[in-house]
Specification:
The complex is a heterodimer of chains A (124) and B (107).
Chain A lengths: L2 E5 L2 E3 L5 E8 L11 E7 L5 E7 L7 E2 L8 E6 L4 E6 L8 E8 L8 E2 L3 E5 L2
Chain B lengths: L3 E4 L2 E4 L4 E8 L7 E6 L6 E5 L3 E2 L7 E6 L2 E7 L7 E7 L6 E2 L3 E5 L1
Parallel strand pairs in B: 2-11
Antiparallel strand pairs in B: 1-3, 3-8, 4-5, 4-9, 5-6, 7-8, 9-10, 9-11
The chains are: A mainly beta (124), B mainly beta (107).
Chain lengths: 124, 107
């Protein structure tokens, strides 16, 4: 069964750093981890959903962040490890949220797959 | 960024009713649109992908339609377990963006 599992969340002080990991397993449809683009979505308490990072498939050459996060967050992937990462620096109180990883593929008739999420709490 | 709007923001309907939620993109997104259902404390659950494809395992009472800028999620024969918040998501243009959500209450 296809699944993505996030880890690395926890409690961190303002200004601190954290790296989230998203591990993929059971990816079917004859495709491998590298065949999918990946992205991170977060949801702050009581708020809506926000896509905070995107990385293209294969080499991950195309990366995108919303302007509000540029410079603090870094997304990267290790196709050999079937893993996606999100390095978060200089964390702020407003970064407190559940963080989800997800994958997709254009023109494939394949639905996006999401993980179950990992909670990041930024608090002094 | 593409702005996604949803209407209504909330609704209350009875078991068995037909419910329609609309989603509009600020510019055309072909059919690169997903619909999710969210329940408290749970990850969003994908219902519809590519605007009109029902994800395997999702009840047939859910359906999606539309292309370009205007999209619709329909629940035909509302059930009590359909209570939750529904979001649309475009993935045509980066950054991927979500609608603000429609809260559905089942009376």
């Amino acid at each position: 069964q296809e699944q993505l599992v996030e880890s690395g969340g926890g409690l961190v002080k303002p200004g601190g750093s954290l790296t989230l990991t998203c591990a993929a397993s059971g990816l079917g449809s004859g495709l491998g981890f590298s065949d999918y683009f990946m992205y991170w979505v977060r949801q702050a308490p009581g708020k809506g959903l926000e896509c905070i990072a995107y990385i293209s498939d294969t080499t991950g050459r195309k990366i995108h962040y919303p302007d509000s996060l540029k410079g603090r967050f870094t997304v990267y992937r290790d196709n050999g490890q079937k893993s996606l990462y999100l390095q978060m620096n200089n964390l702020r109180l407003e970064d407190t949220a559940v963080y989800y990883c997800a994958r997709g593929r254009y023109y494939s008739d394949l639905p996006h797959v999401w993980g179950q999420g990992t909670l990041v709490t930024v608090s002094s | 960024d593409i702005e996604m709007t949803q209407s209504p923001s909330s609704l209350s309907a009875s078991v068995g009713d037909r419910v329609t939620i609309t989603c509009q993109a600020s510019q055309g997104i072909t059919n690169f649109l997903n619909w999710y259902q969210e329940k408290p404390g749970k990850a969003p659950k994908l219902l519809i992908y590519d605007a009109s494809n029902l994800k395997s395992g999702v009840p047939l009472r859910f359906s999606g339609s539309g292309s370009g800028r205007d999209f619709t999620l329909t629940i035909t024969g509302l059930q009590t377990e359909d209570t939750g918040t529904y979001y649309c998501q475009q993935f045509d243009i980066l950054p991927f963006t979500f609608g603000p959500g429609t809260k559905v209450e089942v009376k």
